[in-house]
Amino acid sequence: MFFERIVREDVAFADGLPLAKIAVIGAGPSGLATVIALMRRCHCPFEAWIVDAQDAPGAFGDGPAGGALTAEPARDLSVLPDRPDDFARWLKENFLSNGAVAALRGPQDLHVPRSVFRDYVMARFGEALALRRDVRIRTIRGTVRHIGRRNDGVYVGFLDGENAVFDHVFVATGFGIAQREAASWRDAAAVAERLSHEENPAPLTLVGNGPRLAAILLDLRMRGFTGAIHVAAAAGRLPQPHSRGYDGMVFGEPPASRSLRDAFRYIRRECSSAEARRGGQWQTVVDAASDRLSVVWRNLPQAERNHYRRHLLRLHRHFSVRIAGDIHRRLAGEFEAGRTRFVPPHDPKSADGNTVDCREVPAARALAGLLGCDVATLSVDDHGHLLSHDAPLSGLSVVGAVASGLRPGPFTFAETVRQAYRSVLAAPLSRPARVSRG
C-alpha cells in the first residue's frame, strides 16, 4: 500500500463531491509550483494528489542538500510569475530586516541555502491553500509504474497494485528516479567516510558536472575529506557563474524553414550581433539563445527535435545552467590546488565502489517508460501539453526539468513557474473522476 496523508479534511465540495481530481507527480520545487498555480488559477473545486516515490513536499530542503546554496539568485526564484521579486521581498521581510542575514548587495542577488528557499515555497503553498476552502490536497508516497488514457480519464498505476483515474495529470518529476538527489549526497558521504580510513585510498569519483556535483564536492571538503577527488564530466568543465541579464536585447525574425541547422545558424548570427552591440559576456548570449530556441522549436519537425535531444540537449543545458560566483571560485580553487581533477566520463553503473552518480538528467526517458512509448515520439507544446507524434495526449501536461528534456528553452526555475501556470490555464478541469484498486 502506498502512504497517503490528507493535508486538509474540512473541505466543502458542491454536492459533496469534487468537480475535478488532479495528480501532480513529483513533490519537488516543480511539483509544488504546479500545485500553487492550481490553487491560484484553477477556480473550480478540486482534489489534488501530490505523488512522489520517496519524498514528501519540501523534502528537497532537508539534510545536507538543504544547506547547499541555490544555483539561481533570489531574483529568479519567485513562485508567483506576476510578482517576480516575491522571493527577494520575502527574504528581506523575514531575514534582512532583523539582521539575521547580512548582505552587501540587495536580496535579489543572494544565493541562499535551499532550506530557506524550501521554507519560502511552503509558506506560499500554505497561504494559497488557506484561501481555498474548496480544495483538498493529498500527499502520496508511492512509485508510479504506468500512465495511460482511459475513457474516464488518465490512469495512473502504482508499483504496489494501487491505481487511480484523474481528470488531469501534471508530470513534474524533475530529474527522475535514477538520479535521486538524496542518494547522491548519502552515497558520497559514505564513500568519503570509508576512504578516509584506508591507508592508501583510491580517488573518490563524482560523475556529473552540474550544480548538484558542485555542492556535493564542496560539502565533502567542508566535512574534512582531504583525499583525491576525480570528476568524470562529459563536458570536461564546471558550471559557469551567473552573469548580468540580457534585458533589452532585440532579435530579428526567426527563419521560416523547418531545419535545426537554420535555427542554430539564425541564433548564432543574432547572438553575435547582440554581443557586438552590448559587449556582453558569452553567458549572456547563451541565455538569450535559450529564450530564442523556444520560439523556433515550434517550426521544427519531429526528426529535427530528436536530433537536438540526442546531440545538443546535454551540451546546451551545461552552458545554460549557472551557479553562484562564490561557489565557482571555490571550485576553481579545488582544481588549481590539484586535489581535484577531471577524468574521462564513464558509466557509474560499471564503475567500482568509489564512484558516485551526481548527474542531473531530465527525466524524459523515464516519462516515456511510464507511458510505454519511445521518447523520440514525444514533445511539448507552448501550453505544456504532452504530445505524441505532434498529437496532444489528452489530460497530460509536463512541467520543469522533464519538460526541458523534451523542448529547448531557458533552464531556469522562472521558466518552470511559467510552464506551470501555462499548463494550469490550458488544462480543462471540470468533470469528476473515480478511484479504483487492484
Topology of this protein?
Layout: E1 3-6, E2 21-25, H1 29-41, E3 46-52, H2 63-67, H3 86-94, H4 114-130, E4 135-141, E5 144-150, E6 153-158, E7 163-166, E8 168-171, H5 181-196, E9 204-207, H6 211-222, E10 229-232, E11 240-241, H7 260-278, H8 282-297, H9 302-311, H10 313-320, E12 322-323, H11 325-337, E13 340-343, E14 355-357, H12 364-371, E15 378-380, E16 385-388, E17 391-398, H13 401-404, H14 413-426, E18 435-436
Structural commentary:
The chain has three domains: 3-178 and 362-436, FAD/NAD(P)-binding domain (3-Layer(bba) Sandwich); 181-239 and 321-357, FAD/NAD(P)-binding domain; 260-319, no CATH class. The chain contains 14 helices and 18 strands. It has helices spanning 29-41, 63-67, 86-94, 114-130, 181-196, 211-222, 260-278, 282-297, 302-311, 313-320, 325-337, 364-371, 401-404, 413-426, and strands spanning 3-6, 21-25, 46-52, 135-141, 144-150, 153-158, 163-166, 168-171, 204-207, 229-232, 240-241, 322-323, 340-343, 355-357, 378-380, 385-388, 391-398, 435-436. The strands form four sheets. The chain has an eight-stranded mixed beta sheet, covered by helices on one side. A four-stranded antiparallel beta sheet has the order 5-6-7-18. Strands 13-10-9-14 form a four-stranded parallel beta sheet. A hairpin with a 4-residue loop joins strand 6 (153-158) and strand 7 (163-166). The protein is globular and about 65 Å long. Residues 431-438 have low confidence and may be disordered.
For the record, the CATH class of the largest domain is Alpha Beta
Instruction: Specify the overall morphology.
Output: globular
**Class by SSE composition:** alpha/beta
In helices, the fraction of residues equals 25-40%
Please state the average pLDDT score. Answer: 82
Sketch the major β-sheet. 8 strands, mixed
What's the total number of strands?
18
User: What's the number of domains?
Assistant: 3
Task: Tell me the Rg in angstroms.
Answer: 22 Å
Relevant CATH superfamily of the largest domain: FAD/NAD(P)-binding domain
Report low-confidence residues grouped into runs of 5 or more.
431-438
Strand order of the largest sheet: 1-4-3-2-8-17-16-15
* Terminal CA distance: 11 Å
Given the structure, what is the number of helices?
A: 14
Q: Report the portion of residues in β strands.
A: 15-25%
CATH topology heading of the largest domain: FAD/NAD(P)-binding domain
CATH hierarchy: architecture of the largest domain: 3-Layer(bba) Sandwich
